[in-house]
């Protein structure tokens, strides 16, 4: 009862003086699932932010990755939720501000099927088929970054869904795959079916950001709203999907800036390495 009262009081405070801008803002996220499922996850968040701020915030399903990437790079979305490499790039290049993030660090792990005589270490994947999502998927980019010689890289077999990649390895369709540690522990809890070839350093996790069209005062209201009990409830399906139900926490620009560097060789995301390095200081 006390938490509900606090939530009501918080929303009342957010509503006061909220009609100062009157603009309309677009919210989006990568099309990882079907349109119906994505709408179920993100529509409640857009509707909550609209109520909490008094502004019109509309969720837009991008349809496909190319459309999402193009509009994201052109700053045609005002509020986004996606991977830390995109978050870092927008902070560096598009004047975005992080609003809230998933709490747990994101750690990528490269695995092969246990007992394979020809794949015992990471370098053995060179020239072999790996089950991965299409770039610029963050996990795929972390894997490719480990193979600096273009002539000695794995051959990518595109998949959709972490479990599909894992099953591809188990069924012998691929020699290896990269996936979040949390998913790997879910699929192979005893660690007996797979051999770990590499475990990457932890990164900050996925986050919400708001772009330059969103006034600073409105950004601050969004942060307060998202981190409130009512905000966490509006993100219940997102939390279930990505954090095992854990609540989102506040995010800081500095923790994401260096992560953007993984995109420096991806077409369309080019930027001066020195610029990124200086901005991260």
Map the helices and strands.
Elements: H1 2-15, E1 24-28, H2 35-53, E2 56-59, H3 65-73, E3 79-82, H4 84-93, E4 97-101, E5 108-113, E6 129-132, H5 138-144, E7 155-158, H6 162-170, E8 176-180, H7 181-187, E9 194-199, E10 207-210, H8 216-227, H9 229-234, H10 236-242, H11 254-257, H12 273-279
Helix pairs in contact: 2-8
Walkthrough of the structure:
- The chain has 281 residues and is α/β, with parallel strands linked by helices.
- The chain folds into two domains: 179 residues, 3-Layer(aba) Sandwich (D-Maltodextrin-Binding Protein, domain 2); 92 residues, Periplasmic binding protein-like II (D-Maltodextrin-Binding Protein, domain 2, 3-Layer(aba) Sandwich).
- Helix content is 40%, strand content 17%.
- The strands form two sheets. It has a five-stranded mixed beta sheet, with helices on both faces. It has a five-stranded mixed beta sheet with strand order 7-6-8-5-9.
- Helix 2 links the parallel strand 1 and strand 2.
- The longest helix is centred in the N-terminal third of the chain and has 19 residues.
- It is globular and about 65 Å long.
- The N and C termini lie far apart (45 Å).
- 38% of the residues are buried.
- The N terminus and C terminus are likely disordered.
**Count the helices. How many?**
12
The averaged pLDDT comes out at 89
Total strand segments: 10
Q: What overall form do the CA principal axes indicate? A: globular
> At the first level of CATH, what is the class of the largest domain?
Alpha Beta
Radius of gyration: 20 Å
What is the CATH topology assignment of the largest domain? D-Maltodextrin-Binding Protein, domain 2
How much helicity do the residues have?
25-40%
Q: What is the count of distinct domains?
A: 2
Distance between the termini: 45 Å
